[in-house]
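PROTEIN DATA CARD
Card holder: TGM1 glutamyltransferase
Chain length: 130
Origin: Herpetotheres cachinnans
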Amino acid sequence: GPTPQVAKGTHVLIPLGETSATGWTVEEEEGEEGAELPGGPALNLYLTAPPNAPIGRYRLSVKTRTAAGEYAAPFDDDNDFFLLFNPWCPDDHVYMEKTSDLNEYVLNESGRIFYGTEDQIAERSWNYGQ
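Structure generated from the sequence above:
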């Protein structure tokens, strides 16, 4: 939302190499010694959300601290990500133990949807576009 707050779980602070109070983690990617990406040095990070994290759109910003001072990168829409669900994770509320259920409800590219009112229900084909 427009006013994220740590107390409400809508603003998450994750120190590198530690776990946040809400279970998020961020780890540095192990790279090849002396390897440098085009455009100069880079730091690649792995961000992991806990299974009970709220689904939705997240804005990502990185704050760095060095001997020279602090720098907080501004929010950039290109860094936004959408957290959905993970039916393969036993700790997620939407976990599906049966492979047949995963194939039908998650991995299908098309299916049927039902719409209308309680007294007048209709159905049609739907391309999920996954």
